Amino acid sequence: MTDTSEIRDVALVDALGERYLSYALSTIMARSLPDVRDGLKPVHRRLLFAMRQLRLDPNTSPKKSARVVGDVIGKFHPHGDQSVYDALVRLAQDFAARYPLVDGQGNFGNVDGDGAAAMRYTEARLTEVAQALLAGIDEDAVDFRPTYDGEGEEPVVLPARFPNLLANGSAGIAVGMATSIPPHNAGELCGALLALIDDPKATPDSLLAHVRGPDFPTGGVLVESAEAIRLAYETGRGSFRVRARWEAERLSHGLYQIVVTEIPYQVAKSRLVERIANLLSEKKLLLLADVRDESTEDIRLVLEPKSRTVDPQMLMESLFRATELEQRISLNMNVLDAQGVPRVMSLKEVLQAFLDHRKVVLERRSRHRLGEVARRLEVLEGYLIAFLNIDEVIRIIREEDEPKAVMIARWSLTDVQVEAILNLRLRALRRLEEIEIRRERDKLAAEQAGLQGLLDSERKQWRAIAKEIKEIGDQFGDANPLGRRRTTIGAAPLAVEVPMEAMVEREPITILLSEKGWIRAARGHVEADADLRFKDGDRGRFLVHAETTDRLLLFSTNGRFYTLAADKLPRGRGFGEPIRLMIDLPNDHDVVTLFPHRPGRTLLVATSDGRGFLVAEDETLAQTRTGRQVLNVAGAVEAKVCIPAVGDHVAVVGDNRRLLVFKLDEVPTLARGRGVILQRYKDGGLSDIKVFAKADGLTWKIGERTRTETDLDPWLGARATAGRLPPNGFPKNQKFG
Predict the structure, then answer these.
(1) Where in the chain is the site Interaction with DNA (predicted)?
(2) At the fourth CATH level, which superfamily is domain 351-483?
C-alpha cells in the first residue's frame, strides 16, 4: 500500500528550479570543470586511481582497457562505459595530451580523426607523469570520501607532484559556464613556480619570462602579439592564434611546393585535406593547384602552387584565412578552487593555488611520516629493553600466565612495546643486537628531528617544495624528449592584403535583374539586345556588367543599400532566384538601381521630394541581409536616385519640367540622413539627376541620338531654387537617359 503521508503540494516552477539547480551544480562540480590543484575532472581522477589499485605501473604489464573501465564504473563512476573509455583514450593520445597520463597499447586513434579500437582490443597502464600525480596518496596526503555506493573510498583530489592543469590543459562545458585551458610546457611552468616561490609578489611579466605561451602536442607556430598573450594570462580570458608550420621546398626548373609538417591543435588532418580539396573544386583557391597527403608517421601535406610566380607567403595567407591551417585557441581558466568554488583565475593565481596545494600535501605527508617514525621509535625502545633483559623476557613468557601485564609492571613498557616483543618470532631473537637497534633508533631520531623542524619552519617547507619542483622540471624538461617545446613562439603576422582573386576566380559576368525581382548571372558580358529568357509575363529591368570578384550594391526605395557577392548569384540556364530570398527587402519597396561596388567612389543619393546628399560608397557596404540605412525616408517619400558623383556640377529636373544646374560643392557629404533640398517644387517632385563636368556640357538622349548643351547660363542657379524650363528638344519624360 502506498504511503501518501509525504506527498506535498509544490509549485511546478519551484520544483523545476530546485532540481535544475541540483543538476547544474552536479555538472559544474562533478563533470565539467577541473580542480585547480591536480587539473583533473572526477572521471580522470577515478581512472588514474583505479589503475593504481590494479597496479598498472609503468614497469608492469598493461591490462585490457575493458578491465580498467569496468573497475571505474563499478567502484567509482556510475556512468556509461563508452564515456569513461573515451576519457581514457584521450589521456593516452599523444596528439591530444601534451603529457599523456596513460600508456596505451593498441589503436588509440590518430591525428586524422579516426577513433580508437574497442576497449576489448586495447590495453593500458600508467605513465611516469601519472605516477607523479599519485605520489604520496598512501601517506595521508589528501582527503578521501566514500564512493557512490558507500562500499569504498576515493580521493577528493590527487597529491599532484606534477603541474597537470596547465601542462595538459582542460576543456569542458557545464551549465552556464565553461573552461578552456590549452596545454603548456612543464619545464617552463616549473621555472615560473620556482620564480613565484622566490618572489610571492612576482608580476605577470616576470612569470611570462618563463611561461612564453601554450605548447601544443601537435606543434605549430603561435602568432599572437606579446600584449595579447600578457593580457590573456593576466585576466584568465583570451585566445591564441596558432598556424601550421610550413616551408617552401624548391624543385627543379624554378618550381617549388609548400610542405606542411605541423598542423594546429585539435585539427583532424583528413578533414583539413578534405576542406582544402573542396575549396579547390569550388575554385575558391586559385593560387593553389593541388594538395596531397604524403604523411607516414610524421605529417607531410604537400601544396602545389598554380604557377612558379605565385608568392609562397601570399598562397599561405590565403589558406590561413580559408582553412583550419590557422586556428584560434581560446583561454578561459575557469576552474574549481581549493574550496570547490568555480571562478576564473589568472596565471599567477593558478600557479599559486598549485603551490599552496603542494604545501598542504607536504605538511600532511610529513605529519604522517612523523607518526610512523614515532611508532617505530617506541617499538625500538621496547626491543632495546628486551635485548638487555632477554633471559628474563624468555622466562616470563614461558612461566607467567599473564606475561604482558608482568612485563609492563616490571619495565614500565607500553602496550605497543609489549605487543611488539610478544609478536617477535624465535628466529628474530638472534637479530636483537644492541648496535643495530641503537643505529636504527638514532637514524629515526634524526629523521624525526628533521621532520619536526620542517613542520616548524615555513622557509624549510618552501625550500623542500622548490626542490621537488626542480626535480620535476629536470625530469620532464628539455633534457627529456617529451619535455622539449614543440610550439614555436612567432611574431604576430603583418597584415597581408590577399586580393579577392586569390579566393574567387575572376571572370566577366552579366547580372540580370527582372521586373518581378528575379536575379541571375550569365557568363561573359551580354549586350542588352541579346536573346535573354525570362519567366512568362516578366522582362529584364537591370543588366549590369561585372566580374565574379565584384561586390554588388543594390539601392532600394526604402533608402537602404544591400550588398551581394557576385560569385554567389545563381548561374546556369534557369531564371535565377527571387532577390528577396537573398536580402530582407520589404514587399512595399522596390529596387532603385544595381551596380558593382568601386572602392573610393562617391555617390549622390536623392529622394522623390528633391532632397539628397553625397555619401562615400565605402560607407554603404552592408554586412547583413537587412542592409544599411543611408537615406532616411518617411510616408510617401521614397528614395529615387543613386548615381556616381563624377563631375563638378549637378543637373536636376523635376516632374514639373523645370531644370536647375548648380555646383556639386553645394551638396554636403553625409553618412546618413535626409540631406538638403536640391530643387524646390510647388507641385510634383524629383524626376532625374545627373552629375557632369560643366566644361563638357550637359548631355541627354533623344532616341538613338545624344544631344549636348554647352551654354548652361540660363539654368545655372543656387541649390534649392526652382529652376527654368529646359532647352527645346529635352525629353518629354524628364529623364537624361
Answers:
(1) 41, 77, 79
(2) Topoisomerase, domain 3 (1.10.268.10)
